[in-house]
Structure formats: C-alpha cells, structure tokens
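Supplementary notes for students who missed Thursday's class. We covered one full example, reproduced here. Read the sequence, then the structure, then the short commentary at the end.
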Amino acid sequence: MFVYILGAGAMGCVFGAKLSAVGWRVHLIDVNAKQIAAINEAGLQLRTDSGERNYRLPASYAADAKEKADLIIVFTKSLHTSDAIESMKHLIGDRTYVLTLQNGLGNAAKLAACVAKDHILEGVTTVPAELVSPGVVSSHGIGAVQFYPVAKEMPPITKVISSAMESAGIKAATDPEIKAAIWTKVIFNATMNATCALLDTTPGPLGGQEDGVALAKTLIEEGAMVARASGCPIDAAGIHAMAKMSMTQHRDHIPSMLQDLRGGRLTEVDDINGAIVREARAHGVSAPMHETLWRLMRVRERL
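Structure (token representation):
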C-alpha cells in the first residue's frame, strides 16, 4: 500500500510512523516548511510508552509529490480540508481511497468535491498525539479508530486498513454507526475544547468549579439534542463520562483549540460548535449555548 498522510502534524506523524513500521510506503504531506525540513533531514522521531524510535519517511508539499496514492489519510484541520484535498488532485487516481479522521462535522462532504463518494471513508480516532517540536512527536497511552464508507458499501480496502492498523498497535473497527461516533466526538470537543480555549484553562480547573461542571453538562445535553434532531441518536451519558474523565484524569492537558489560540492560529470552532449551530438551524431547533460559545470564540481568535 502506498499512502499519503495529508497533514503531518502530531496525529498525522503518529499514524505515518506506525503504518510505515508494518510495511506500508508512507509519504507525509504538509505546508509547514520547518516540519517538512526536519523530517527529511533527521527523520521522524516518535516517542511512545515503549521508548523512542526514528523513522525515515519522505515529507513534502503536495505540489512536489508525484505518485498516485492507494490511500490518502486526512488529518488537516477541518478549516483547511477543501484547500488540502484540492492540492492533492493530481495524486488521486481511479483506485485511490480517501479516509478522513479529522475533527468536526462535514469533512466527507468537502472531500467529495475532489473524490468520488464511493471512495471516501469517514471516521474518528482517539489515538493520543502531541507535537513536541519540528520532526518530533509523542504518543503515550492507547487509542482506537472507527471508520466506515460514506457510500455504505464495504470495499476490500477497509479490511486492509483495519488489519494494518491492528498490526501497528491501533485498535481499528469498521462501524456502521460511524455518524454517532463522529457526533459524540464533536459534542465532546465543542464542550471541552472550545470552553477551555475561551477560558484559557486546562480541563482540571474547569472541573474544579461547580459552574464549570454545570456549563459542560449543559453544552453536552444541548449538543445531544441537536444530534437527535438531525437523525443521529446520541448517548449523552457517554459524553458526560468522557468530560468527567477529561476534568480528572487529563486535567493538565492543553486542548488543541487552546494551543491554536496561544499560537495565534485560527481554530476549528466553525466546524465544531459552528457545525452544531448550523445543524440545529437546519432541523428547526436552537442551540443558544453553542452559538454563544461559537461567536465568542470567533471574536477571541481574531483579537
């Protein structure tokens, strides 16, 4: 299998390294010159619970890649999805499949502008990943992948992907209820990621206050209501448990939106909280808490 990892940030590098270790030919694609240079010059260093290992993988801009892919795994931020897949058009052949494991709602629809619907797979992942410095990433703990074809028909490549990920130490499953899994992650991120970013805090201090816990509960319930209105039943209890775990066991974790704000970058809030608001409007319900958080974040990230 020849695979491009589109978006060589923390998550993309972890998957790229692990899949290369089980025999896949992996090429990393990014727009960050420092990241590309570091990987090409010194290799990709991955730090895990088992220690450190250096992987020699090619990295480049999309325009500099030439070979058509068997598979493209997309890890770019959701706000860059359309531009990113457009940059890959010359690398997409009749047999190329594209798997999105990004945050947010609507990524598969964006990919469909350049990829046939029956060649798009959508999913979610809980694999931990952190970018330490250019060319250096860490992944401590375990994680999993759930995915499913957008067209609902199971092409042979799904078994190939699952098998490779399992061999790489990543639990993988094809899940016909993938929409629920995507919504679950979106609601969790809309609650914990956006709130922590706006308040400039990690989950621990948020969970240490009654008002913080109450705010998270309200956001989760509102998000689950919108999901149900859109035709996707959600287990809100499971998301409440995820939020509690975040506030207790991962109390010092710096959410990605907070990292973006601190780094002066735009966040994914439009495709997370904003997507919940758009879905609410489309199905005749309202999401005032998420709309307030969305608009406050849009103001904050542009200050």
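Commentary. DSSP finds twelve helices and twelve strands in the chain. The domain at 2-175 is CATH 3.40.50.720 (Rossmann fold). If anything here is unclear, bring it to office hours.
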